[in-house]
Automatic annotation (TrEMBL):
Compositionally biased residues, Basic and acidic residues: 153-162
Residue ranges of coiled coil: none
Ranges where the record places region Disordered: 153-202, 283-304
Any matching Pfam family: DUF3048_C
Protein name: DUF3048 domain-containing protein
Positions of the DUF3048 domain: 49-180, 204-316
Length: 321
């Protein structure tokens, strides 16, 4: 049978149409594409079928003048980062629930850029930052929110001097008004066999001293800082279900110096290294691993067994090797 040129063109057009229709159908069917997990172009939009609320990360001051803080007890994870002068600063991660207020809020650091990427496209709430790292922050897949860009989400308390009196209301941050409930960023599980019973563990930075004391009554680690119990305004004593001492490489940052001329440290959270995981009144010595910025950190014993976190808040201390 001989097919005319016009008939051949008609058949070809029909085939192209069918292929295009099939591709569209596959995209809209469940499992046909990964668009359900993507963040919308407008993070403030609130459609009923929107993805989960973006994770909120707040930079929190923890020097003596900033204590007691607000909102730490509601955090899923709290990272302790080394900063200038041997001090530390906190990065509090909120996914399961949002407190009324968090703070005092302080500036972002270069460490935060890689650290928070494991949470998808998070909202990073902070106040100010060194001009040298602002371009790096803006290029990262992070929704940046400061008291200058979204002043309605922030307020200043009247009981402390500036800069230790700035707070953020997480409910007013982009994407937090969505109807779908947020999803936790930790996956608790049973501890592996073994571990060494321990009642307390001290973790010292050059000018910040942390102590974690196991409370069988609480089933948590009670946290102290510089010799005093760490407390929050809304919930009293700060506790953690799991404490991770994560030993990381620390390098000098991008020309951000303290008053003594020292460069701001940058803690490396991608790669692998040694770690000690405290949970259930025991210490598990092992390793941490995070192959890429988009992946979460996993912890294992020296024998290779995974060490999941316990129920409750997780504190991760990024300590220099």
């Amino acid at each position: 049978m001989v097919v005319s040129r016009s008939a051949f063109r008609l058949i070809a057009a029909v085939v192209v149409f069918l292929i295009a229709a099939l591709a569209v159908t596959l995209l809209v069917l469940p499992g046909g594409g990964d668009g359900e997990d993507e963040a919308p172009s407008d993070p403030g939009a609130a459609p009923s079928d929107s993805p989960r609320r973006p994770v909120v990360v707040v930079k929190v001051d923890n020097v003596e003048q900033a204590r007691p803080q607000a909102g730490l007890s509601a955090a899923d994870v709290v990272y302790v980062e080394p900063v200038e002068g041997g001090l530390t600063r906190l990065a509090a991660v909120y996914a399961s629930r949002l407190p009324e207020a968090v703070g005092p809020v302080r500036s972002a650091r270069e460490t935060d850029i890689a650290l928070v990427r494991q949470f998808g496209t998070p909202v990073l709430a902070y106040s100010g930052g060194a001009p040298e790292i602002e371009p790096l922050l803006k290029r990262a897949p992070i929704t940046l929110v400061t008291d200058k860009t979204r002043p309605e989400a922030y307020f200043r308390g009247d009981d402390r001097p500036i800069p230790h009196n700035l707070y953020v209301r997480p409910q007013r941050l982009p994407g937090q008004q969505r109807e779908r409930e947020p999803e936790p960023v930790t996956r608790p599980g049973a501890a592996p066999e073994g571990g060494t019973p321990v009642d307390a563990r001290a973790v010292d930075f050059r000018d910040a001293r942390y102590r974690f004391t196991w409370s069988g009554a609480d089933g948590r680690w009670r946290i102290s800082l510089d010799g005093s119990p760490l407390t929050t305004r809304e919930a009293g004593r700060v506790t953690a279900g799991t404490v991770v001492v994560q030993r990381v490489a620390v390098r000098e940052g991008r020309q951000v110096r303290d008053s003594g001329g020292q460069l701001s440290p940058v803690a490396g959270t991608v790669g692998r290294g040694e770690a000690t995981i405290l949970r259930d009144g025991k210490a598990f010595d092992g390793t941490w691993s995070r192959p890429s910025p988009e992946e979460p950190t996993t912890y294992r014993t020296r024998g290779g067994q995974r060490v999941p976190v316990a129920e409750g808040p997780v504190w991760v201390l990024l300590t220099p090797r």
